[in-house]
């Protein structure tokens, strides 16, 4: 057998790369324990392929290390396909890679593959070895490619987990702040949590950006995703149009968007181009869109969508000076917390055309987000929309207004509305 792999990386060099990767991975700082870890641990007890998806630099590699060091007892291989020395790696080289790994570490049954989407047709090798009893934990930064592959070659074989930027709870733990031990907060605790929630709104939850605030990590990350994960991957010639669309979206979070208006205002040629570019941005985890709630799927598709960003820190770092609008940042943050736990999230328009920011049918939960309710006009507007929704739905809906600092219960026209401070809503076990 030849010791030369089918590309230009000799076996000795490949083994050196793999050894370095493993040593670095084994000594990585485990950082803040991620909330999703227990859920993944439960998944590990099954024979399923574990798939972790999320934005670049959101902490997938660190989560892998947390899994490895707490669950796997050194009985695993680790390969990072983001390593520039493996960028020419192709699917037909996996057997050679496996041979090198056995030569280094002996026979092991668990593979940890980081950023697997960089290898076309990776799923062929994974399926073949999975059929022979091997276990896989893989990560990737492009949800579309992973979905296509999981939905064809690996149907029914995988469990998929989404990793988001730090939640508020993780953010608090990252800063080594002790969380209150009782549900009744002291004045001091409320003040401290309010301060941290304001900072969280501005800073977001990308781990490296919080760890190295002196570096412009968020802007660099945004550019990397735009150019490497989208423009290069999808071979987009008119990069300027993609750039302008993304900049418009990141400067207008928690806003309704119309494909037609975007096409006209940004001179993007066709509605299909707008739809395609937005789908690319969603696949790369930069943005999310939600539909208007309607019983008709057709009506949902026709109505304007609302756009949200992956991280409020990135919105502040990249978007056009909108950060003074704390209300929009709060709404984006509430969306992200909902999205961690629910796929079916909508905004709602009442028959009087009054908007409710979020409606989660599975929880019968309706939420308005407002910076504060001290202005009587604002207060009545937020309450009116929730009351109209409650009357139209004729169900026992839970109605909430998430604001920055105040807490109260309001009864209006026989309808009860909870007013909850953002920090409490984000931390509460009662919030979805």
Low-confidence stretches: 1-6
Shape: globular
Tally of individual domains? 2
Strand content: 15-25%
Output the structural class: alpha/beta
What is the terminal separation in angstroms?
A: 56 Å
The total of beta strands comes to: 14
General description of the model:
Strand 11 (365-369), helix 17 and strand 12 (398-403) form a beta-alpha-beta unit. It contains 18 helices and 14 strands. Helix 12 (259-265) crosses helix 13 (271-283). It has helices at 11-26, 37-44, 60-72, 94-105, 122-131, 143-152, 168-174, 187-203, 207-211, 217-232, 239-250, 259-265, 271-283, 297-302, 312-318, 326-339, 376-393, 422-427; strands spanning 49-53, 77-80, 110-114, 135-140, 158-162, 255-257, 287-292, 305-309, 346-349, 355-360, 365-369, 398-403, 408-412, 415-421. The longest helix is centred in the C-terminal third of the chain and has 18 residues, at 376-393. It is α/β, with parallel strands linked by helices. The protein has a nine-stranded mixed β-sheet, with helices on both faces. The chain has a five-stranded parallel β-sheet with strand order 2-3-4-1-5, with helices on both faces. Mean pLDDT is 92; it is low at 1-6. The chain is globular. The chain folds into two domains: 11-162, 3-Layer(aba) Sandwich (Rossmann fold), CATH 3.40.50; 187-427, no CATH class.
